[in-house]
Each structure stands twice: as C-alpha cells, then as structure tokens.
Prior knowledge:
By secondary structure, this protein is an all-beta fold. The chain has a domain at 36-101: CATH 2.40.50.100. 0% of the residues lie in helices and 27% in strands. The chain is built from no helices and seven strands. It has a four-stranded antiparallel sheet with strand order 1-3-5-4, with no helix packed on it. Strands 2-6-7 form a three-stranded antiparallel sheet, with no helix packed on it. A hairpin with a 5-residue loop joins β6 (83-89) and β7 (95-101). The radius of gyration is 31 Å and the shape is rod-shaped. The relative contact order is 0.18.
Amino acid sequence: MVFVSIFPLDLQFFAQKKGGGSASTNCNHDSRSQRRGVKKFGGEFVKEGEIIIRQLGSKFKIKKGDKSVFFGKDYTIHARQKGLVEYYKGRDNRTFVKVQSLV
C-alpha cells in the first residue's frame, strides 16, 4: 500500500536570529576621544590661562605655593602667567610643572 499525500509538503527554514539592521547597538562608531596629554613641552612659551597639560588625575604635580600654574576642575594644568614651561623632578621622582617668568 502506497500512501500519497494530497497536500504537498513545503518545508521552509527561517533564520533563528534577528538581523542586525540599524539598531543603535550595532553601530561601529567610535566615541570622541578626550584629547588628553601634554599640550606644551619644556621650553615652550605660554600665555596666561593657556592649557599646559590635560590629564586624568594628578600625574603631573604643582608645587604648593607656586603662583605660576594652577589646576582646573579636571586636573588640567593652566598657566597663570606668561613665560616658559619648565618640567622638573621632585621628591619620590614625581614630575612637577611650573612657568618661568620672562621678566
């Protein structure tokens, strides 16, 4: 006895995963960098208020009582007066920054 079906079997297999499409998690755009680092090197001239170093935390230090430079709210080091940037090593091999006045 041969069994013949009246309905033809049409088997289709669909994808089990949803396609990537334009979902925001699938975009391969890079985020904007913070542009941190040394902006003015030793011996370079700076004006008042100019950024010397953008840093995360206080990797570069300022000597207490030094009136030539100051920290911004995000540890950015700015020049308080115009002059030449100077880097030097202090206690415990820490790097300090100051601005030498041209007077």
